[in-house]
Every structure is written in C-alpha cells, then in structure tokens.
Fold:
Amino acid sequence: MKNSGSTRWTSFVAALVFSVMLAGAPIWAQQDDPPGRVARLSYTQGTVSLQLSGAQEWNEAAPNYPLTTGDHLYTDHDGRAELDLGNIAVQLSSDTDLTVANLNDQILQLGIGQGTVHVRVYEILEGNSIEVDTPNGALSILRPGDYRVETYPDNNTTLVSAYSGSLEITGGDFHETLEGGQAIKLMGADPIQAADVSLPGRDEFDRWCDTRNQRDPSSDSARYVSRDVPGYQDLDRNGRWVDTAEYGAVWYPGDVPPDWAPYRFGRWIWIDPWGWTWVDDAPWGFTPFHYGRWAQIDSRWGWVPGRMAARPVYAPALVAFVGGRNFSIGISFGGGGGVQAWFPLGPREPYYPWYHHDDDYLRRVNASHVTNITNIRNENTINNIQYVNRNIGTTAVPANAMRDGQAVPRQIIRLTPQQAAQAQIIPHPTVAPSAIAAVGGRPTNAPPIRPPRVISAPSGERTRPDSNGPLNRPGQPPVEPRPNQANPNPTAPPVEPRSNRVNPNEIAPPAQPEPPPNIRMAPNGRGNPPVAAPPSPPPEINRTAPPVQGEPAQPGRPGQSIAPRSGPPGQQNPPNSEPPSQPRWITRTPTPPPKPPFANVQPALQQHPGRPLEPQQMDNIRRGNPAGPMRDREYAPHPTPDKPAPASGRDQKPSKPDKQQDKKQH
Structure:
C-alpha cells in the first residue's frame, strides 16, 4: 500500500513537472544541447567549396547539406550559393567567402571575408539576434528586410546597403544605425571610418536574389509546416497535400521511382554534435527527412508533418536503427564487415536521439508527434513499440558503405520481411565514421581566398560626384538607380536625400586635419574630438595571431577565428594540433571556439563506434587531454557483436556517480 501511494505521488510529480515544462520552460535549447536549427545549403551553382569547422580539407559543396557553427563556404568566379534557415535566406555571389561563425537557437552570426552576400530576413523570432561580421564593422539586423553586404579586402572597405529594414553598425567606439533606403561605406578597423553613399540600384545579382526570395503567401505547405522550417516551400513544387482521416495532412512526393522509400536515396555523413546525419539526393529532400514522420498509405509513401510546433527542432534523421547477430546471419553480400540498417519512424512513434541531450530537448524534438515525455522515457514503452515501417521500409547496406559516406542506392542489400522482423532495435549504428564521411564531400583545391587587411587608409585627394548618382561598385559596371530609390520600403520613415557623398571607389581620407561632415570616425574613447588618420599608413596589423584560449572576442576588435582558410586537399592536422588560424572579423557577439580536428577526435570515436562524443569529451580533446568516458545512458540495448569488442566506458556498468548523472540527464 505504501509503495502504491509512492508510485501515485511520483506519477503526480512527474505530470506536474511535465506540465510546467510545457507552460513555462524556455523553448530554446540548453547550453549543452545540440542546436535546434541548421542552415540548409539549398542551392549551388558553379564551383562552390565547403570546409567544415576544425578541418583543413576543402570539398565540393552539395545541396541539402546542413551547415552549423564554424562551417565555411566559398563560391568561385562562376559560383553562387544559398543558405536557407526558414525565416532567413542568405545568398552568396561569386568570389565570396562566408563562415557560419555561430548558429544556435538564439543566434545567427555570419562572417564575411570577401565578396557579396544578400540577407533576406522574413522574421526575427523573439529573443533571437542576427549578426553579420566584416573586417570593417559588425552589423546587427534589427528588423526584417533586405540587406546587401559587400567586402573588398584589396582596399579594406565594406559597402552596406539596406534596401529595407534597419540595422546597427558597431566596432570599437563607432556606432550608427542604417535605415531602409540608406547605404554606407566602411573603411579600416582601428579606427573605423564611414562615408555616406547613395543607395545603389539593383544589379543582376540582386534580381536573382529577388527571384529566389519570392514566396507564395497562399502556400499549401505553410498551412501544415512552420515557415521556420528550411525548405518547406519546396514541397509545393514537388508534390501534393491530401487530408486523411487517420493522420491529418499528408504530403506525397510527385516523382519518385517504384522502389522508392524514405532514407534510401542519399547518403550518411558525420556532423558533430549529432553524429550520423542523412543527406538526401532529392531537390526537395530536406524538410521531410529532418522533421515529421513517414507512413505508407495505399502502397504509397507519404510524409506526415504532425502538429505544427512553435519552434520546430531539427533532427539529423528521424529513423530507428536495427542490427544484431540474428540480423547479420543469413544476409549474404560481397565484401563482409557486417550490415547497417534503418527504417523511417512512423506517425506518433517516438524519436530517440543517439547524441547528448536533456529531457527538454527530447520533448521538443518529439513535439510534433509525441507529447508525453514520461512515456518516451519509459523502458517498457521503448521495448514494446510496434514500429509500422519496420517490415516495409528497412534499408540495409554493408557497414563500410555507411562508414565511408557512400551513396546508399549503389550499396543496398535486399531484405525479406522475415529478415527485417528478426532485427533488434539498437541505439545507433555500430560503425565509426571514416575521414571521408566526416569532411562533407569530394575533395577539391583550396579556393583563392584573399585575407582582409585591416590598416588605416592613406591620405589623398577625394572627388565628390553628383549626390544623386548611383553607386558604382568596384569591379562592376555602373547600375541604374531604381524607382523610389530614396525610400524603397514604404513602411520605413521618409529618408532625406544625403549630400556630399564621397566617391565609393576612393578610400583615401581627406588631407584636411579634420574630416568633413560626411566622414565619421570613432572618437578615441577619452572624450576628445575625432582625430584624422595619419598621413602615412601604420604597420599592418597581425591578422593571423591565434586568440588566447578562453578569451572572448571584444566588440570592435577582431573576433575569434572560426574555420581555417587554407590547406591542400586531403591534408590532416597532426594529432593534438589545432587548425590554422584565419583573418578575423570585427564582432559584437563572442564566437565559439573551433571544433577539434577530426584526426584528434577519431580515436575516441573508436571506443564506442557510432556514438558522437559528449560535450565534456570534446572539451577534453580541445584542451589536448584524453576524451574520457561517456556518461549518458542509451535508450536501447546494444546488439550482440559479431566479434568481441573492447569494452568502453559506455558499455561497462556505470559507477554510482555515473548513475546519478544518468538520472540527471534522462
């Protein structure tokens, strides 16, 4: 009787805690949780190269790749690219060097080393910030709108155009707000100089961006999928929606082969902190593979988005993995080395992450289909789930195909329903990634990135063109001013015409002791009036010195480096080494440290194959120490291995402190 009462009390407390979590808990992730969003590489044209955080290698970028903190993108002379974050679109022109400096549930921070970037902000969620860092100033976007940022390292300038919206420019003691219909030119970094320029007309790149950013306000997909989900608009063009009695709204892809099944036409790659991540081949293949569930209805596969979440949470792949000795025996294929298999989760089936997270993350990532976190964590529930897609949607490949990130369709092992039914549910794949799966694609040559030089501009003569003339961007032909150039945003306040604009192709400050009114320089911080630049340039600032470990970036000073800029294809960092440093931007928000090189992480991954390292293990490696044991409990038992494997800290019986940690985390 006493135990029964205790059980009822425990259930009551659990229900109360869960209700409080739903009502009042923060909807963003905890510090150690993986980010709830990524930047989808939604479009590439020409030569586009990708360098992952902590890596030296450059690889060919491919659509649907999820980018996160520290990843580095470069478009060559013939290249263009686009990043999609749902409510934010970022387009890159040719010869553009862009780093995702920081990306989590609250912050999008981009670093531009050179080239032209267009940022279209549809919505700024409460508590979120959007920052674009350049060698000449940090730009904080304050309102939804259209923005263009152009950085020219050869003459140490950045041109900022706000076609609509509002942004704030900071750096050192410099501070200014730019409203829709205005443009500004930034020069140098210590101090920053600013010149008023006329808003340029739209060129061919702007018109391409306008085409990419057209969104149908009556989109069918937006009725069922949050506009914060990257790629939701692709569903309208590549399938149709049907209302069903059992699952509600279901989306059917329009053109797939007869043997098509979810998570079968693509490949597995390794991205920290999630580990194994699915990249689909279909142009529309992002939203349905990182959100929602799949169901086979009348012999057709349909995607079921479920309830629309307030803030959707990205998942690397919404699948369950299967394996075990009974599964591998009786499956014949060439090459040996074991089998890896998985199937898509069905509607209302819980998703069990194979990477570090807390209970709040578990609730949020399942919110579209499962709301009762108590049932998700219940061990009896886990063992008794009747997965609807297990016998009809399981895909199997040789272990080495997954290990090396190979295309799945070329490696598929055909299974019978009986073989699929014999498979044991396992917590994650049992293979550790090779360097090929962890670098993101086929190797390519390092791009010709020109590092920005932050030096004071030399003195010289300055010409003053007609104040109403359009801006001629360096290296581009003159462009015509567009209609209503002074105030293209009808909701923005009227903008007075600016006079005394300097020639944007000239960067020299005036020879006079005091700068003219349209040149603004940051004060020296001691209350004195602005001081003009010296007549001769000072020595060049060292842009390659690495940051002091643990020292945050300071506003108005070069920010922390994120990703290395150079390194021949295929070259690995030696063990216990850090990636090479890079030129830095002026930042307002401190940026995270780079990830450890994969060569340093790979040995620790062999201790528990298929499971990504936990935050404290990554910190240990970053400090040059051994990774140490894993602490998190896994939801499903490990399969009986085909061959005995060395026991790791995860497979051994946890000590008493580890049990306490398990209880805290799960």
About this structure: Residues 2-24 form the longest helix (23 residues). Residues 598-665 form one domain. Residues 36 and 313 are 4 Å apart (CA to CA). The chain has three domains: 46-65+84-214+454-521, 221-443, 598-665.
